[in-house]
Amino acid sequence: MSATAGATKFLLWLLLLSTSSSSPSCSASELDITCLKTVKQSVVDPNGILESSWNFDNATNGFICWFTGVECWGRRVHALNLSSLGLEGQFPQGLEYCTALFRLDLSNNKFSGPIPWNIAQQAAYLTSLDLSYNSFSGEIPIGICRDLNVLNIQHNQLSGQIPRDFDELLRLTSLSVADNQLFGLIPSSLSKFPASSFSGNQGLCGPPLGDCANTNESSLIWYIIDDMIKDDFIVVGAAAGFVVGFVAAFYFPHLFVFSQKLHPYVYRIC
Ligand SMILES: *[C@@H]1O[C@H](CO)[C@@H](O)[C@H](O)[C@H]1NC(C)=O
Ligand SMILES: *[C@@H]1O[C@H](CO)[C@@H](O)[C@H](O)[C@H]1NC(C)=O
Ligand SMILES: *[C@@H]1O[C@H](CO)[C@@H](O)[C@H](O)[C@H]1NC(C)=O
After folding, report:
1. CA-closest residue to ligand 1 atom 11
2. What is the pLDDT of residues 138-182, one digit of tens each?
């Protein structure tokens, strides 16, 4: 009795094993198709490049690997290079279905809006991410993909600080955040990159750029305020705000007279 039960179990196990080892390659490329269909639907394509090249009707084996900007490795979508195609709209959707995606290049388009906060979950294995020369705005998401070797996000409208967890991007060999609206201290592990990687951001300071003491006063105050808001310091900040506000108003009275931007924050903290 138990011998048959054991045999049945074994057979079931074999069956499971065989189905699970044969189905991924099939469903995996179907996932890639879902990925590309969703990407195509979610972006604005004024030049009709995806419209004409990304044709999902011809379903020959590995057909998606012939699409403009799609690079495969063993029939899996390995890289998506949509650079300079005149694309518009928000950050493309559906990338979470491209489960073998290692490189993503959206550079030189007109994409706008935020970089998704969960980009690390959407594209978990990225080693190369190029979003440069677009109009992405908002803050750089925290917990950006850990395995990145290349990160190019220069020439956008990104604001806020460089997240401190950039210190954990140990494999980074190429980085540019130049020409954005970033401010605050550059995470220490990034000081090995050239100053040109950070240029064009009025409020960034610390190596390889200049000393924070020499940065523009208004940027520095922004940095302090942003830090307090981010660390949920609003309550404690009410007290600290008095001190900061008092000191700042004492030393830089012109900021409070001329900087419209500061008024709501000063009001909020004090
Ligand atoms: C399907 O795509 C393949 C590869 O691009 C091409 O050789 C073939 O002619 C296409 N078939 C049709 C019916 O469009
Ligand atoms: C994407 O293609 C452009 C040329 O169209 C090339 O310059 C760039 O290096 C490519 N990006 C990647 C990540 O291969
Ligand atoms: C500081 O920044 C303001 C605008 O943000 C600018 O007008 C001013 O010239 C800057 N000052 C210095 C010393 O760079």
Report:
1. 58
2. 999 988 788 899 999 999 999 999 999 999 999 999 999 999 999
Q: Quick one: which of 209, 183, 205, 206 has its CA closest to 194? A: 209
Overall pTM surpassing 0.85 (yes/no): no
Question: Where are the alpha helices (H) located in the chain, listed in sequence order?
Answer: 2-42, 49-53, 119-122, 217-230, 234-251, 253-258, 262-269
Residue 5 has pLDDT above 60, yes or no: no
- Domain borders along the chain are 3-215, 232-270
Look up the CATH number of domain 3-215. 3.80.10.10
31 contacts: CB under 8 Å, gap ≥ 6 = 97, 98, 99
The residue whose C-alpha atom lies closest to atom 8 belonging to ligand 3 is 216
The finding on whether 66 has its CB within 6 A of some atom of ligand 1 is: yes
The confidence score (pLDDT) of residue 52 equals 94
